[in-house]
Each structure stands twice: as structure tokens, then as C-alpha cells.
């Protein structure tokens, strides 16, 4: 077997190759890109037996590579070559480095050596990169891009709200949602108090109609009254400057709205193509977008999660236990995939309405004295287990199967339930 440590940077990779005894066979700095990958293959091939056509895959699988990322063309090239690749958290590498030196010295070559040592000595305890399908990988890219745009829009909306508070607070009374298309259109057309007060009801109702809002007549009257209500004002130069900034922010939010809608349609279409889409959509609390996010973050490698417990551990819905001597404590997991935790939290919140069993389980946790967030996390943990079972068996969610057994279970005492 060969063990390769790959310390990557934006434009180069420091690599070290070791044998099973820990002897350094080769070390080099390789350029990023096709030439660098080709050179790495040459270094590896120089220390491997010449394989025949039938044993080539088995020989390449004996090459274990440790690298501090799981993304990018370089990593995919290593996986495609047949190597077993381990994406190692940089913090784990730092802790491993401290085992052998307390001086604090650090270099790229030393990190490559530490990574090669890690996969050689601890490879059996490390998680290799999941073998997700290309479709799932594409869904992951779309899901994360869609979520980033939504967060970018939220930042722009907060800036807009703060700006309006400083010179045009009546707009916040008139517009209850600064992300809506009619709000953005009217703010771009009338970004200052005087112009907004002169907006006619016909202009306001037309903007609402283009945004397809219900109850246009009543909302138009309320909005017009709020915009025309007298209030404190700023000087003309300051108001003009704020108005220019508001017009720009409205244009940015309008553009983000358009791109978010475009990505959402594409994400939904790609998600529906996945073979497991029906199973995900059958789960309570999972609409198309949240379901796509959960699929994207879990991946679809059938061998990645050996049990429901391992899936729950990755989801960070299951607690961790710390035991030392006579002291034992149970805590939530704070190191986690933030995107997955957010999606599962949204699922749990939605399941309170869509599933009688989920609501009863949540109420049981609250009756035991848990707060809202802790009870939701317990519910999310249960829902992850249900999803795991459905994916393993290929079955759609069934309310009776998922929750029927709990109607006969006794209510656990708080201490026992917290440790479960």
C-alpha cells in the first residue's frame, strides 16, 4: 500500500508518498491542474507493481490519499483515478501535528507529511469521500447557490431597512415585506417621502397586480394612507442621498429576486430527476426545496451511513455524551454541517403541521420540560431515523409505520430520555 499526503494551496500541491512502514518514498511540489495530476500519477506509479487489466482497480485502491478538502477538480481527478481519498478536517491535522511537536512550527511540506502519516496510521478511523452520483453533486451545487443568494438578499434587505429608518420610516409601515416585487418596484419609483406621498392608488394597485397579490383594494388603501401620513423628515440633500442609495438597493434586491426564482426552478427540476425524490418528498415537513437541500447535504452514496445512528450523528441531531469518572453529561453537537442542520430544523418545524405523530412527539418532549429548540432537535433526530429507514428499504413515508408504535410506549422519565 501507498499513503499520500496532499497539502493543497490555490496554485500548487505539496505531496509526500509513504510506504506501510512510514518510509518516505517521494516528495514534491506539484502545480495545480492537469500537469500536476499527471505528475502525481507518475510518482505513484513508480512505486506500484505493474498491474494487469483485471487487477488495475485493486492496485489503485491500495493508494490512500489524505487531503484537507473534498471539493474541486483535483479531488475529483484523484477519485476518478481509483485512489481512496480521505477529506480530513484541518483541525484534525493540527491536533495530529501537535502529537509530534510542541514548537508550533508549520510548513506545507510538513503538513503533507502529517497527512500521509494520518492515513497510514488512522485511515481505518477516517471517512473516505462519499461516492455520490453526479446528479446528487449537481443538486448540491444548485442548493448551496440558491441558499447563498437568499442570504445575500437578506443582507441587502437589512441594509435597506436600516436606511429607511434613518430618513423614511413611514415606508416600513407601508411595506411589511421588503423582498416582495411590488415593494421593490414602488421604492425604486418613489424612494423619498415626497415622491411616495404623490403615488396614486392606481400606481400602487398596478404594482400589486403585477406581483399577483390578493386583496389589492384594501391593501392599496392602507399603503396609500401610510405613505401620506405626515412624519419627521431630513434635509433635502440628505434625503436625496438616501433616496439614491434606496433606489440602488431596490435594484439589487429585484435582481436577486429574479435569480433566486430562476435557481429555484432549476433546483426543483433537477431534484425531481433523482431516483429518491419521491421518498424525500413523502417525508413530513419536506417541500421540494427543503427536500433538495436535505438530499444535497446527506448525499446519495448508499454505503456512507452504515446505520441510522451514523446518519443522525452526521446530521448533528443526536446528542453527545461526555463521561469522566462519576460525572456524565449530555450535550448538543456544536460541530456540524450548518446547511443540513438548518434544513432539518425547517423540516421539523413543518412536520408539526403536516404530521399528527410528529406533533405528538414534539408535545411529549415539551411535557418533559424541554424548550422549543431542544424539542425540535429531538423531533428532527427522529425524522432523520425515519428517513434513513425509508431510503434503506425504498419505501415511502407512512404515518402509521413511523409513529404507531409510540402510542403504546410509556413516557420515559426526563433523565432517561435526555441520555437516550
Automatic annotation (TrEMBL):
Transposase IS116/IS110/IS902 C-terminal domain boundaries: 281-352
Which Pfam families does the entry link to?
DEDD_Tnp_IS110, Transposase_20
In alphabetical order, the GO MF annotations are: DNA binding; transposase activity
Q: Name the GO terms of the biological process aspect.
A: DNA transposition
Q: InterPro entries in the record, alphabetically?
A: Transp_IS110-like_N, Transpos_IS110, Transposase_20
Where is the Transposase IS110-like N-terminal domain positioned along the sequence? 4-169
Q: Which NCBIfam families match?
A: transpos_IS110
PANTHER family in the cross-refs:
PUTATIVE TRANSPOSASE FOR IS117-RELATED, TRANSPOSASE FOR INSERTION SEQUENCE ELEMENT IS1111A
Protein's UniProt name = Transposase IS116/IS110/IS902 family protein
What is the protein's species of origin?
Answer: Pseudonocardia sediminis
Amino acid at each position: 500500500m501507498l499513503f499520500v499526503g496532499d497539502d493543497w494551496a490555490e496554485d500548487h500541491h505539496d505531496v509526500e508518498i509513504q510506504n506501510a512502514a512510514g518510509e518516505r518514498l517521494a516528495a514534491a511540489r506539484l502545480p495545480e491542474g492537469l500537469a500536476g495530476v499527471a505528475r502525481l500519477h507518475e510518482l505513484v506509479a513508480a512505486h506500484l507493481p505493474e498491474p494487469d487489466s483485471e487487477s488495475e482497480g485493486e492496485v489503485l485502491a491500495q493508494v490512500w490519499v489524505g487531503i484537507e478538502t473534498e471539493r474541486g477538480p483535483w479531488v475529483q481527478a484523484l477519485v476518478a483515478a481509483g485512489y481512496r481519498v480521505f477529506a480530513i478536517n484541518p483541525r484534525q491535522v493540527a491536533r495530529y501535528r501537535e502529537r509530534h511537536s510542541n514548537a508550533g512550527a508549520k510548513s506545507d511540506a510538513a503538513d503533507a507529511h502529517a497527512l500521509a502519516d494520518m492515513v497510514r496510521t488512522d485511515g481505518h478511523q477516517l471517512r473516505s469521500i462519499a461516492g455520490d452520483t453526479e446528479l446528487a453533486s449537481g443538486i448540491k451545487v444548485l442548493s448551496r447557490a440558491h441558499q447563498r443568494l437568499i442570504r445575500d438578499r437578506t443582507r441587502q434587505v437589512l441594509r435597506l431597512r436600516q436606511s429607511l429608518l434613518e430618513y423614511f420610516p413611514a415606508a416600513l409601515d407601508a411595506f411589511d415585506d421588503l423582498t416582495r416585487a411590488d415593494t421593490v418596484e414602488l421604492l425604486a419609483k418613489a424612494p423619498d417621502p415626497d415622491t411616495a406621498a404623490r403615488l396614486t392608488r392606481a400606481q400602487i394597485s398596478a404594482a400589486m397586480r403585477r406581483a399577483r397579490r390578493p386583496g389589492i383594494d384594501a391593501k392599496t388603501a392602507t399603503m396609500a394612507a401610510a405613505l401620506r401620513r405626515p412624519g419627521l423628515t431630513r434635509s433635502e440633500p440628505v434625503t436625496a442621498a438616501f433616496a439614491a442609495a434606496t433606489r440602488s438597493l431596490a435594484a439589487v434586491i429585484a435582481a436577486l429576486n429574479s435569480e433566486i426564482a430562476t435557481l429555484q426552478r432549476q433546483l426543483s427540476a433537477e431534484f425531481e430527476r433523482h431516483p429518491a425524490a419521491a421518498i424525500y418528498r413523502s417525508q413530513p415537513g419536506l417541500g421540494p426545496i427543503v427536500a433538495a437541500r436535505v438530499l444535497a447535504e446527506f448525499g446519495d452514496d448508499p454505503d456512507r451511513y452504515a446505520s441510522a445512528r451514523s446518519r443522525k450523528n452526521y446530521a448533528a441531531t443526536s446528542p453527545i455524551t461526555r463521561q469522566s469518572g462519576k460525572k456524565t453529561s449530555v450535550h448538543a453537537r456544536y460541530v456540524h454541517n450548518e446547511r443540513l442542520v438548518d434544513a432539518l430544523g425547517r423540516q421539523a418545524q413543518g412536520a408539526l403541521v403536516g404530521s399528527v405523530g410528529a406533533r405528538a412527539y414534539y408535545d411529549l418532549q415539551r411535557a418533559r420540560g424541554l424548550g422549543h429548540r431542544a424539542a425540535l432537535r429531538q423531533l428532527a433526530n427522529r425524522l432523520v431515523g425515519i428517513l434513513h429507514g425509508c431510503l434503506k428499504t425504498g419505501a415511502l413515508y407512512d404515518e402509521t409505520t413511523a409513529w404507531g408504535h409510540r402510542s403504546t410506549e410509556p413516557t420515559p422519565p426526563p433523565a432517561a430520555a435526555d441520555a437516550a
